[in-house]
Specification:
This protein has helices spanning 29-40, 49-68, 72-76, 107-115; strands at residues 83-84, 89-92, 101-104. It has 116 residues and is mainly alpha-helical. The protein is elongated and about 70 Å long. This is Tyr recombinase domain-containing protein.
Length: 116
């Protein structure tokens, strides 16, 4: 409208988005081993039911993320009925862009889920 002479309002200038300087880090085998060891070695002090379940869920949660490549949100939205342990398939219903898809579980992850 301003270009046509229909208004005197000046449009505000929108600042450009700064480029990110973040450089992704690929974990080494040693770092991964130490990380999963720390997950498995959580303190055994249980004052609440939530703390008791954390000892089991944290190691499984991070191994699931690592072995499948799913997003944290996708893992948190999983329900028991979304995981088929007989066939080793996960149904990801809540995903980025709302696209439902299936993911095959690694054999070791499938066995870990059966144990837990």
């Amino acid at each position: 409208m301003r270009k046509r002479g229909k208004t005197d309002v000046i449009e505000p200038e929108i600042p450009r988005k700064e480029r990110s300087t973040y450089i992704p880090h690929s974990f080494t085998e040693v770092e991964l081993k130490n990380f999963f060891h720390a997950c498995d070695s959580l303190p055994s002090v249980f004052h609440t039911p939530e703390q008791r379940s954390r000892k089991i869920t944290i190691p499984v949660f991070f191994r699931l993320l690592y072995s499948s490549g799913i997003r944290t949100y996708e893992a948190r939205m999983l329900r028991v009925e979304d995981v088929d342990l007989c066939n080793g398939i996960m149904n990801i219903r809540h995903s980025k862009g709302s696209a439902q898809h299936y993911i095959a579980l690694h054999d070791s992850m499938n066995e870990l889920l059966k144990i837990r």
